[in-house]
Amino acid sequence: MLHTHWLGQSLLYFPQLGSTSTHLKKLSSDEVAHGTLCITDHQTKGRGQYERDWESKPGKNLTFTLAFKPTFAERFHVLTLTCAKVLVDQIEDNLGLKSSIKWPNDVIIDDKKVGGLLTETTFSGNKLDRLLVGIGLNVNQDKFSEELDEVATSLKKEFGHKIDREKFLAEYLSRVEHEYSRWHKNDAELLKEINCKLVGHGNWVRLKVNGNVSEDKSKLIGVNEQGQLTVINNEGGIDTFSYEQIRLIAD
Ligand code: BTN
Description:
This protein has 6 helices and 13 strands. The protein is of the alpha+beta class and 251 residues long.
């Protein structure tokens, strides 16, 4: 099913693995080609953002990591957002479901999380070696733990039918390959498309900055070329925040 030129052409599949991201991180540079896909059907030690675990029922979902080896380290958060935007586009095009990107990198449907992305980098000296974009997408999982049920969903739960994971992934990789070249050449339209998919875009939202919920609301403008979140504060000034500094708080 794979029609890509380079993305996923180097493929590491494991029926069971601790974490696809950890696996790709541990390999030497020579063992990881640009575009390598590492995927497992049963991830036992999945990692999420903020040192959290990523749980996924075996054989039901998509848990995989893509390795990119660009020649520059700048704007890598924009690449993560590009991968998130592609998910949102494909969910809409394939299933007719509206999803959005919740900063920094959750994919949500009706305020419930359907997917999450985790980007990590490895360096060789001070030179970027690889960007690892780990993606967990809840595809056919019907049941979540009591704790997660309120906040998580799957494509099947929202769409009402089982989804062909292989087909979905093959199309996703083609789409990402295409959008990667736009990211690489710093296509300004790409940023606009990402921003349109951001939860709260153009609205006054409450932010958690460096762990503290801010008293005043800020108007969310979107992500800039460096991958920073730009907002207008209540005094009319412009603030930019790095990726890790900010979380969006539901009101
Ligand atoms: C998050 O929303 O917290 C990010 C979740 C990222 C999970 C994926 S699943 C594949 C890859 N391997 C991991 O250990 N984590 C990422």
